[in-house]
């Protein structure tokens, strides 16, 4: 039986704790040693969109990104859950155009932008929901570019048996060290396969990715370019107002962080050679935003003003409809 207490996030109203979120948190080195733990490190969890940096490896490692003239902002976008803001839509269109593709090739499904502001602007302009506004369209544009570059059929690239997904699967297994079988396979919100693995394996994979320990030079170059591109272009990974972007702006190349659906959050800490993953047991986004910022504060000695910026994410005010502060969100790790 696991004896580690889970991390908690309290949400207050006045002087009373109104809600409590519980989360499992694991920090590992590239050898799989647990450095910090809250809750159950062996819990089986779908990494969801927190795994997008791994999913972008075939795009970069194959030479597709360079062949089509992708800039590092495009590499960052390939790892994103973007807000559908103008910079994201323009860059997705560029990725598709450079690889001789179009939005109708995207098989991620239609939706309006993740950003409320971007959605309002879209409707005011008379626009409609489409695949290109899907929060995962950058990742899908990257997968399509890989397919185009390697001469694969682009239709059906989202299927588990398609070589695009098999290449991604091989990357995920190599970094995590655990099999990604059909028995643990689900379908993500954007229709590609997602596989449930232990949190410890996900944290170890993140550490291996950022340290490049034991990697061949070609893969090492790919992983280094990916995480550095995301850190250098954090606005492409999520967008204005989103925690991923705000955290990476505060930390620079000291941390790569990536949120996933159902309250999962991954971090790569290059200066420490560590990887981390957080999973809110109730799937609450506000809980993992708070905990990830707190984890970065505890793990990295960044000083001011970075710590102040992170504290605003870790301990945001709870406000009412008039904008009055009525409570606070406060995280507790080890």
Description:
The protein has 334 residues and is an alpha+beta fold. It has one domain (7-332): Beta-lactamase (3-Layer(aba) Sandwich), CATH 3.40.710. The protein has helices at residues 52-55, 57-61, 64-67, 72-78, 86-98, 116-124, 137-149, 163-176, 199-211, 217-232, 234-237, 243-251, 285-299, 306-314, and strands spanning 7-13, 16-29, 34-38, 44-45, 185-187, 193-195, 197-198, 256-260, 264-269, 274-280, 317-319, 325-332. Strands 1, 2, 3, 8, 9, 10, 11 and 12 form an eight-stranded antiparallel β-sheet that branches. Strands 4-7 form a two-stranded antiparallel ribbon. It has a two-stranded antiparallel sheet with strand order 5-6. A hairpin with a 5-residue loop joins β5 and β6. The longest helix has 16 residues, at 217-232. The model has no long low-confidence stretch (mean pLDDT 96).
Topology of helices and strands:
Blueprint: E1 7-13, E2 16-29, E3 34-38, E4 44-45, H1 52-55, H2 57-61, H3 64-67, H4 72-78, H5 86-98, H6 116-124, H7 137-149, H8 163-176, E5 185-187, E6 193-195, E7 197-198, H9 199-211, H10 217-232, H11 234-237, H12 243-251, E8 256-260, E9 264-269, E10 274-280, H13 285-299, H14 306-314, E11 317-319, E12 325-332
Antiparallel strand pairs: 1-2, 1-12, 2-3, 2-10, 4-7, 5-6, 8-9, 9-10, 11-12
Helix pairs in contact: 4-7, 4-10, 5-7, 8-9, 12-14, 13-14
